[in-house]
Amino acid sequence: GSSNTSSFRIHIGSDSETYSYNGAYPLHIAIENGASLDVVTLLSRFAPDVLMNGDGMGSVPLSLAIKANASSDIVNLLLSVNSSAASVPDHRFNLPLHVACVSSFGRESSKSRRASYCLKTLSALLSAFPKAAHTCNFNGRTPLELAQNGGLFDDDAISLLHENAYNENDSDVQEVPWL
């Protein structure tokens, strides 16, 4: 009989760095399409440099995983392979932390699990790139401002962002060059 499942092959070798029509690598496409942890592991470990490359909009795989509400295992994997990806902005100067602060974290089923996932993700991103907490995006917004305006986060998440945004050791707000 016929099957509704589609399959595709990705040639892993010199073609692993081939762009698609929108500037995305196979890893970008896999993450945007809800690939499993095994697929993301294979692609990210084979070509870890791709974790620092943006797609057509400048989004690195870490930002795409957060936008796609990927599992915390996928987010943690991407950070473990190359934590520097947390410092790569997209074309609107949104760092992965900015993206997380407008995310609904909708994949988790219960409110308490969503809150836990949110805190773990924010903590991991802040650990990887602490300056993200007070870096402004293209619109002059910090991650804290985005989270407060979105109304999606509980008090613990807002407190975590607030503490990091106003850390005594690193408190200068980082502006984008043209603001």
CATH class annotation: Mainly Alpha
Structural class: mainly alpha
CATH second-level architecture? Alpha Horseshoe
The CATH topology: Serine Threonine Protein Phosphatase 5, Tetratricopeptide repeat
- Rg to the nearest angstrom? 17 Å
Q: Please give the alpha-carbon distance between the first and last residues.
A: 60 Å
CATH homologous superfamily heading: Ankyrin repeat-containing domain
The mean pLDDT is 83
Share of β-strand residues: under 5%
User: Quaternary status of these chains?
Assistant: single chain
What is the total tally of β strands? 0
GO molecular function: actin filament binding
Keywords: ANK repeat, Repeat
InterPro entries: Ankyrin_rpt-contain_sf, Espin/Espin-like
GO biological process, one term: actin filament bundle assembly
Give a description of the structure.
- By secondary structure, this protein is mainly alpha-helical.
- The protein has one domain (14-170): Serine Threonine Protein Phosphatase 5, Tetratricopeptide repeat (Alpha Horseshoe), CATH 1.25.40.20.
- The chain is 42% helix and 0% strand.
- The protein is built from 8 helices and no strands.
- Helix 1 (26-32) runs antiparallel to helix 2 (37-46), helix 2 (37-46) runs parallel beside helix 4 and helix 6 (111-128) runs parallel beside helix 8 (155-165).
- The termini are far apart.
- Residues 1-15 have low confidence and may be disordered.
